[in-house]
Amino acid sequence: MFNIAQTEILAVAVITCLAVLSPGPDFAMVTRIAVIRGRRAGVWCAIGIGCGVSVHLTYTLFGLGVVFAGEAWLLTTLRYLGASYLIWLGISAFWPDIKARMLGYANESASDGGEPASAKQADGGSAFWMGFACNALNPKTMLFIVSLFSQVVSPRTTLGAELGYGLYVIACHMAWFSVVAAFLTLPIIQARIRRTRRWIERVVGICLSGLGVKLLASG
Known about the structure:
The protein is an all-alpha fold. The protein has one domain. 80% of the residues lie in helices and 0% in strands. It contains 12 helices and no strands. The longest helix is centred in the C-terminal third of the chain and has 26 residues, at 159-184. The relative contact order is 0.22. Mean pLDDT is 81; it is low at 106-122.
């Protein structure tokens, strides 16, 4: 039989895994960056996603999570910021096409399967901050963390245990999305998608913009 502490640990572990594995902006973001920019950028994005969660964990562990979640104006502001960011990311996926049309030259990557223009901008720093902002500005991540620590974690749980839970949540995000990035950049996968990278970026861009619009409409 499980005691209360073991039950709590199991609940946190299962709920976190289910939340991380569910498709959302994080998955779309890592997919786009890994496919277009490569494994290193994809892993940096995964690290950024995990660090973005730490923003919500920090104020929640200080006891401010429930207060923030109850402030309608704060949730609305975060929702607008998060939605605007996702829509901007989605539109940016079409920037090479827009630039090609504006300047009147053909997009080579769309025709010959070469590296798209966005791949030339790859660097770990930008990928990290894109992943960080994706979660730091996501009101659903905020509500998940607040709900986890207010409804699943007991008020009697020690601060040390709560910190352990927080590190586990961060590690799960980093590990899972690093696995996604690694899988999408396997040679056999890259060989299959080499000629369709631009289309993948476009589709993911549409998904990101769609998630942003959905987030706006959810209010």
